[in-house]
Predict the 3D structure of the following.
Amino acid sequence: MSKLLMIPGPIEISPKVQEAFAVPPPGHLAPPVIEAFGRSLERMREVWLAGKDSVPFILAGGGTAAMEMAAANLVECGDRVVVACTGYFSDRMSEMLRRLGAEVIEVRVQPGRRPEPGHLDEILEAETEQGPVKALFATHVDTSTGVRIDAGAYAAVAQKFDLLSIFDGVCATAAEEFRMEEWGADVYLTASQKAIGLPPGLALLVASPRAAAARSRLKQAPPMYLDWDVWRPIMDAYEARKPAYFSTPATNLILALDAGLGEILEQGMDARFALHAGKARELRERWEGLGLTRVPEDDDGAANTLSALYYPEGVDASLVGRIGERGVIVAGGLHPEIRDRYFRVGHMGYAMTQPEMLERTVSAIADALGVRSNP
Ligand code: PMP
């Protein structure tokens, strides 16, 4: 039996997605690719629960490319922006924004915590008195802490102060509840290797019409590969089922994306969010049964896509290797302040529909810890 990949991305993927992917590389002008590309753009709006005028982008790259695309199309030198810092990936976002020359106002918390929306509101009240603030950036689920922010409330705070709101959904999209149109969020971005359920290699982003319009007001164009205005005619063409070329799309991944989004929509978004919430709750109980404590401080702020768990007294990072020897691959710590004190278990997408995969994972961890697991 091959080892089970239970890290927070890449993840186990469905047989249907594997089948769609594992074909000899088609050209980007091949009719099945044109159809899959066009339908994937349409399906992204449905999975993102985004408005019909929202603008989806699919390009070869990872989550970092999607983050950079959002930043480079909305922020330029001298802009003031707020970043809710919940861990490693929001720190990366801050650094990207600083490199663009923005003044970055960071709202920092201890690992395992998240800024309360009321706290963001207070900070924005004070900061907007000093001068205009352009955007609020936040990580929906920070993969380094397993903390999920209250994205709907953050989007509402951003709207109150007339800010653009940008959410990194790399470890959340298609698993954690996110209602782009209803909440008035401006950008929601992800990568293919997480809850979307594909191999790594695609950067996926949906922009609101307001965000797309903000790009055209930039004084200087973003780097060409990241420029929404360069990519929009390509996306529009594929959506109209006509091929167009700017940079070669990852054709096998586009076929897989169409299949993966199709499976997600077959499940339905509400059912999908509920499945992740329910299974994650069960897993939290199992971790407690094994004597493991969690990095997120409260359950409301605990992600449904991964668990970040402290090593018990007397156990160190060698646990990760021992779990691996029992056939399940989990990940070590990532947040620099607590890196050696915890490990991470990914549980999103296909594995959440396969109870035996979750059971194998809990059993391997219990066995490696030398404790009994009671289902
Ligand atoms: N943001 C978050 C929340 C992530 O979890 C990751 C990847 N783990 C990234 C961004 C970066 O994605 P990638 O590794 O595909 O560049």
In short: DSSP finds 13 helices and 14 strands in the chain. Residues 333 and 339 are 4 Å apart (CA to CA).
